[in-house]
Amino acid sequence: MQVAIIGTGYVGLTTGVALAYLGHRVVGLDVDAAKVNRLQRGEIPIYEPHLAELLQLARKNLTFTTDYATAIAPAQVVFIAVGTPALPDGNPDLTYVRQAAQGVGWHLGQNFTVIVNKSTVPIGSGNWVETLIDEALKTRAHNAPPFAVASNPEFLREGSALHDTLYPDRVVLGTQAPQALELLHTLYQPILEQNFTPPSFLPRPAGLVAVPLITADLASAELIKYAANAFLALKISFINEMAQLAERVGADVTQIARGIGLDQRIGSQFLQAGIGWGGSCFGKDTAALIATARDYGLGMGIVQASRLVNAQQRQWVVDKLLQTLKILKGRRIGLLGLAFKPHTDDLRDAPALEIAQQLVERGVGVRVHDPVALPRAQREWQKLEIQYYDNVKTLAQDCDGLVLVTDWPEYRDVAWEELAPLMRHALLVDGRNFLDRERLRQAGFTYLGLGR
Ligand SMILES: NC(=O)C1=CN([C@@H]2O[C@H](COP(=O)(O)OP(=O)(O)OC[C@H]3O[C@@H](n4cnc5c(N)ncnc54)[C@H](O)[C@@H]3O)[C@@H](O)[C@H]2O)C=CC1
Ligand SMILES: O=C(O)[C@H]1O[C@H](OP(=O)(O)OP(=O)(O)OC[C@H]2O[C@@H](n3ccc(=O)[nH]c3=O)[C@H](O)[C@@H]2O)[C@H](O)[C@@H](O)[C@@H]1O
């Protein structure tokens, strides 16, 4: 099938590369000319495992452009995958979705096209997207072509984006137009039926034979996305609240997580207590859900509480440093990990930034390390007075403490025994309860977890 994807960010690029690998002809469309130039040269502008390799395999089916006419006119399916960042009042900024919808309306071809909203947008957005396309079509000279708008929320996680796209837990399609449903069913058939040959570097999970398809009305599909993110966010906040109590009563939250997670009704994922969630979506989407509910007179107390707990977790790390070192001014602290989670260089709402800002404000000399996100941090955090290190050992020299902020697997392999003697205070705050506590203690560290 002929597919256009508007927006070549984390979601658009991953979707485009995956669909091209599955045999569809895909055009990636973006207003960022520099990004499109790099993609045309086969370069990936973000760090996402296996994306470059899959792009190479899919290249014959994949082109990139900044030109709406080239991408939209021949497409049978058009995805809108542009950003929807949060506004100060919690509502998402829908400017880019509006621009994309208008661009679609001005350039639709004459055959039936389904426009699929993959951006995370408030409930009811499918309807105004349809109106915008209709209005743009009216400005054109010839007869308006037939089209339908559908919602297809995205559930991929950064760091495992391609895995999540090729092997999703479910596909959700929100539309009541049979022709749209038929086209999208054909588009997703290889994923739904799992009948494609997996790339060698992304093997199919054992036992996966088919992916469930959920068909829903537009509003339900849009709400499914927000409900999923809010639930995941509150699962993390729940275990973080337990961590706060566990610490006070002398219990270990990692044991609590295991003890409740093996109950299949609860499930063991998203129960890793620590400095809480960051990233471009949980904060933005919980705020948007609350803003939408406010319009309907609902308070969303549970979602509100999960945001409150999350904010406290970042502060907890700074409090621990203060309690142990007594004075923070003039200290030297090293942060291990800057990205909001491992296997990405994404710094949007990264807890590391807030922790670094707080420490700098208190007169701490802050040193930072990250396996992949350093160059991006140097570009994006220019105003912050911190020192960047590409070597953990050099960073630790003469430090008063280290904070593990991102649970990159390589931090498990650090030669901690060699680091402790180099530091002024061999103190480690494990913000993800991730490292081997006994090993750190044997290496001479004062190890502090969160809630254990
Ligand atoms: N990042 C993630 O892990 C996930 C994101 N989402 C949602 O997907 C949407 C996109 O998110 P990301 O991919 O992270 O955003 P992003 O910021 O990485 O990429 C958005 C892209 O859209 C382009 N763009 C903006 N306006 C445009 C226009 N009028 N025409 C063409 N291109 C335009 C930008 O230049 C940028 O390259 C958001 O609504 C987000 O909430 C959903 C699931 C996962
Ligand atoms: O809408 C989105 O953008 C996406 O948001 C999340 O994906 P993502 O933010 O990429 O990453 P997650 O793996 O969910 O992690 C989010 C944050 O929660 C933190 N986290 C995660 C799990 C956990 O147990 N504890 C915990 O603190 C991570 O460190 C990270 O900061 C969802 O998991 C995706 O399903 C969704 O598509």
Provide an overview of this structure.
The chain has helices at residues 10-21, 33-40, 51-58, 68-72, 95-107, 125-138, 161-166, 178-193, 218-249, 253-261, 282-295, 301-325, 351-361, 374-380, 392-396, 416-419, 437-442; strands at 2-6, 25-29, 62-65, 77-80, 113-117, 147-151, 171-174, 213-216, 332-336, 365-369, 387-388, 401-404, 427-430, 446-448. With 452 residues, it is of the alpha/beta class. It folds into three domains: 2-216, NAD(P)-binding Rossmann-like Domain (Rossmann fold); 226-306, N-(1-d-carboxylethyl)-l-norvaline Dehydrogenase, domain 2 (Orthogonal Bundle); 312-448, Rossmann fold (3-Layer(aba) Sandwich), CATH 3.40.50.720. The chain has a six-stranded parallel beta sheet, with helices on both faces. It binds 1,4-dihydronicotinamide adenine dinucleotide (NAI) and uridine-5'-diphosphate-glucuronic acid (UGA).
Which structural category do the helix and sheet elements fall into? alpha/beta
Please report the distance between the alpha carbons of the first and last residues: 53 Å
Query: In CATH terms, what is the architecture of the largest domain?
Result: 3-Layer(aba) Sandwich
Give me the count of strands: 14
Work out the radius of gyration: 24 Å
